[in-house]
Design goal:
Length: 198
């Protein structure tokens, strides 16, 4: 089986073939049930705190949001629900975390600061933003009456890139976490498992 990549055709690997089969059956990896677990495997407190500003969560809310699904008359976590709120999610998805680092200069030869962000994915995006802002430079623009701070990179664009890296990671694969690297002249956000080149 071959898949189209840019202007070339490449032989699909086993993981890509499995993903195509899931799409053909109108299901995604995130929505698959984990039948060997029950709903107690999810951290409902963390989920409820996250959704508190928007809505109160109930068991039916979790099903509607596809955090859980019915499997043989029982509520079980979906893969996506377990990734988001699983109490022991690293047992099943060891790469579902963010590694952030601040490097001196323009290469990775000297690491000045680093952190491992292992909170639930919605919180991980916020922590990654805080880390980058701590190390990002900004300038003060002085006007006739007031001054304003201006970041060297638009925060909205940066947040979008971090959220995209977390949301679009291919957690069916394993190999490395999401990486955020701050250099003197740029910020790199890597999602190596979803950007494999076979």
């Amino acid at each position: 089986m071959f898949i189209r990549v840019g202007s070339t055709n490449r032989r699909a690997d086993a993981a890509q073939i499995q993903e195509l089969r899931r799409y053909a059956n109108h299901g995604s990896f995130d929505e698959q049930p984990i039948p060997e677990l029950n709903s107690e495997a999810l951290d409902f407190r963390a989920a409820s705190e996250l959704f508190a500003p928007v809505r109160k969560l109930t068991p039916s809310s979790f099903r509607n949001l596809r955090v859980t699904t019915k499997y043989q008359e029982h509520d079980v976590p979906t893969v996506g629900g377990y990734l988001l709120f699983g109490k022991d999610r690293f047992d099943r998805f060891p790469d579902a975390w963010v590694q952030a680092g601040r490097f001196a200069g323009k290469d990775r030869s000297r690491l000045l600061d680093s952190t491992e962000i292992r909170t639930h994915p919605p919180g991980a995006a916020e922590e990654a933003m805080r880390f980058v802002q701590k190390h990002m430079s900004r300038e003060t623009v002085i006007g006739p009456v007031r001054h304003a701070d201006r970041w060297t990179m638009p925060l909205v664009a940066l947040r979008e890139a971090i959220v995209n890296a977390i949301v679009h990671a291919d957690y069916a694969q394993s190999g490395a976490p999401i990486r955020v690297a701050v250099f003197d002249d740029r910020i790199e956000i890597e999602n190596p498992v979803s950007c494999r080149s076979d």
